Amino acid sequence: MKKTVLESILNTLSRCFIVLIILVVVGIGLSGIRMVNSGEVAVILRFGKIVGDTPEEQIHQPGIVFCFPYFIDEIVSIPVGNVIQQNITTHYTEGTITNWRDGGYLITGNQNVALVSTSAKYVISDPVEYALHVNDVSSMVNACVSNAMVEVSAKTHVDDILTSGKAEFIKEVSELSQKKFDAASMGITLQNLEFVNVSMPEEVREVYESVNSATVSASTLIEQAKQYENTTIPEAQSTANSMVSSANIQYSLNMSGAETALAEFWGILEEYEADPDAVKDRVFNEKMAEALKNIGTVRLVDSDGSKIFIDWGAK
User: Fold this and answer.
1) pLDDT at 148
2) I need a surface site. Which of 45, 104, 159, 227 has the fewest CB within 10 A?
């Protein structure tokens, strides 16, 4: 009995369906075979739970990995051999801020505004934690670093963020970001965080630059005053020390002379009390001898033959 056209079509469809089923079964079976590339490791999640009890069993190195089909096991490849770089621009706005409610800036500890963007470089240091707790690594890194920047800037002066305190600011943000990574069990280690752009909004930039220029000028004048102080005070101190030293020397000389005169006086007084006339004659003769040492020429003058005058000129 000859087959009808309908029977032929049904037989053909049956064979195609069987082939399709075979291909699906083979595809499902092969879905459990994955190749882990160089610079990556893989972990297997079975119904959302990691397979293996130890890190050696949980982490699969580059090569072929065998597991159950995809609806049972999920293979998560993790790039552990690369340093991942990500720009954080949450608190940076190019040009003028049109809507301050939308953010795009940082508020500093002295109630000023700064625009800051950074570049974060990190590595995946714990593949197991990364596989279990990280779904969107870019969003999580951005959130942690951005929040850290808000916390640190809230206690930092705007001048420190924009000028002299940049290194300390970025250091504190890095440390706080890593704490947030660890608290979220992300399995990420931050290797470096650096500024990309640091500035003021266009609306206040001119005013800030004027204030900053005045601050720099004031700092320059203060530094010059300190240099003058460091030069003048030592010189004045040296002069004062010299004057004090000279006064002390003169004081010693005067005291020595006074003590000598006083000793001489007490010596004469004792002699005078013993023999007043003899002392008066001796002192008179000594003083006259001292006076005569200063006499130049001595002349005896007889004015009228009855008186004799001693006339001497200055020496």
Assistant:
1) 95
2) 227
Q: What is the pLDDT of residues 16-34, one digit of tens each?
A: 777 777 776 666 655 566 7
Q: What is d(CA 218, CA 169) in angstroms, rounded to the nearest whole number?
A: 24
Alpha helices in the chain (DSSP H): 5-30, 55-58, 127-133, 137-153, 158-162, 166-183, 202-274, 276-292
Low-confidence ranges of the chain (pLDDT < 70): 1-3, 5-7, 10, 24-33, 35-36, 48, 56-58, 62-63, 66-71, 205, 207-208, 211, 295-315
Residue 147 has a CB neighbour count (10 Å cut-off) of 15
Given the structure tokens 């069993």, which residue do they identify?
57
| Calpha distance 184→143 (Å, rounded) | 11
pLDDT at 127: 86
Burial of 78 (0-12, 13-18, 19+ CB in 10 A): buried
Q: How many whole angstroms separate alpha carbon 76 and alpha carbon 66?
A: 13
Q: In the block, which residue shows the tokens 């459990």?
A: 32
Sign of the torsion formed by the C-alpha atoms of 201, 206, 211 and 213: positive
Q: Residue 120, class by beta-carbon neighbours within 10 Å (0-12 exposed, 13-18 middle, 19+ buried)?
A: buried
CA dist 107 and 115 (Å) reads 9
Q: Which of 196, 141, 195 is nearest to 169 (CA)?
A: 195
Tens of pLDDT along 32-66? 667 667 777 777 777 767 777 777 666 777 667 76
Residue carrying structure tokens 């290797």: 191
- Chain centroid to Cα 80, Å, comes to 32
Q: Which among 172, 169, 78, 164 has a CA at the least distance from the CA of 124?
A: 78
Would you state the pLDDT for residue 168?
Answer: 94
Give the chain's radius of gyration (CA, Å): 52
